[in-house]
Amino acid sequence: MGTSGGLSIYRLGKLAGFVALPCLAVGLYLGLVWAPPDAMMGNVQRIMYVHFPSWIATALAYLTAFVCSILYLARRRDGYDYLAQAGVEVGVLFNTTGLITGSIWGRPTWGVWWTWDPRLTTTAIMLIIFVGYLLVRAFLEDLEARARVGALVAIMGFVTLPVVYFSVRWWRTLHQPQSSPSTVDPRMVVALRTMMIAFALIAAYLMSRRYELARLQAASERLEVGPGVTDG
Amino acid sequence: MDNGGFVAAAYVVTGVLVSLYTWRLAGRLRQARDVASGKQRGA
Q1: Fewer CB atoms < 10 Å away: N or C end of chain B?
Q2: In a 10 Å sphere around its CB, with 0-12 CB exposed, 13-18 middle and 19+ buried, how is residue A204 labelled?
Q3: Which residue of B has its CA nearest to A215?
Q4: Which chain A residue's Cα is nearest to B36?
Q5: Which three-class secondary structure state does DSSP give residue A111?
C-alpha cells in the first residue's frame, strides 16, 4: 500500500462519498415518509433507519481495523496501520451515534435512557476498548510501537463484536433479537437497506480521508526524525 | 403516541456528529497537507 495504494484508496473514497449523498437523500425520504409506521411502536420506530445503519458502519469500520491490524502484524507495511487507524476512528464515531440513537429510542419504548442490559453493556465495552486504542496511540511516541500496540488493541477490541451481536440470543435482554426481513413490511426493508448502503458509503468515504491523514502525519513525523535515524 | 421529538432528536444528533467529524477531519487533513508540503520544502 504505497503512494499508488494511497491514491486509489483516496479516489475510491471520493467515489463512495459522491454515491453516498444521493443514496442518503433517498434513504431519508424512504425512512421518514415512504415507509409505514410500526404497528406497535408507531413513528418512533423510524429511529431504526439511523440506529441500525450506524451499527453497519461501525461493524464495517471495526472489521477494516481488525483485518488491517492482522495484516500489519504479519507484513509490517505502514499502509495497513494507516487503514486500521482510520477504521477505529470512524468506528468510534458510528459506535457513538449507534449508542446515542439507541438511547433515544429506548426512552419512549422501554421508559429509560439507559439500562445495564447485555446488548447495551457489551456495546459500551466495545466503544471503551476502541477509545482506548486511540488513547494508547496518542501516548506512544515511537511510530512502530504505536502501530504494533494499536494492532493488538484493535484485534482484542474486535473480539467483542460477535459478543455484541449474539448478546441478544445468549442472555435475557430488553433489546429485541435480530428481525427477519420476511416478518416486516417490504417498504421498511427497502428503506433500511438504502440507509445501510448510505451509511456504509459514508464510512468508506471517511475512512479514506482518515487514511490519507494518517499517511501524511507519518510522513511528517519521519521527516522530523530524519533519514538514517532508526528506532532501534 | 407520536414521539416525533425522539425521532427528530435521533436524526439530528446523528447528522450533527457525522457532520462535525467530517468537517474536523477535513481541517486536520488540510493542516497535515500544509505541514507536509512545508517540511518537504525545508528538507
Answers
A1: N
A2: buried
A3: B32
A4: A220
A5: coil
- The closest of A184, A190, A16, A104 to B11, measured between CA atoms, is A104
Across-strand partners of A38?
A42
Q: Is residue A211 within 8 Å of A95, Cβ to Cβ?
A: no
CA distance linking residue A91 with residue B33, whole number of Å: 24
Contact in structure between B2 and A186 (CB atoms under 8 Å): no
What is the tens place of the pLDDT at every residue in A159-208?
Answer: 999 988 888 788 777 777 777 777 789 999 999 999 999 999 999 999 99
Q: How far apart are CA A17 and CA A23, in angstroms?
A: 10
Rg value, chain A, Cα? 20
**What pLDDT, in 10s, does the model give residues B23-32?**
999 999 999 9
Q: Can you read off the three cell numbers belonging to residue A65?
A: 481495523
Smallest CA-to-CA distance from A89 within A199, A193, A4, A213 is with A213
Q: What span, in angstroms and rounded, lies between the C-alpha atoms of A199 and A218? A: 28
Contact A213 B29 (CB under 8 A): yes
Our CA-based measurement puts residue B3 at a distance from the nearest CA of chain A, in whole angstroms, of: 6
Q: Which residues of chain B does A224 touch, with a Cβ-Cβ cutoff of 8 Å?
A: 39
Round to whole Å and give the CA distance between A169 and A175.
10
**Nearest C-alpha in B relative to A106:** B6
Contacts of B40 in chain A (CB under 8 A): 223
In a mutational test of the A interface, the residue from B6, B13, B20 whose CB has the highest number of chain A CBs within 10 Å is B6
Q: Mapping DSSP to helix (H, G, I), strand (E, B) and coil, where does residue A38 land?
A: strand
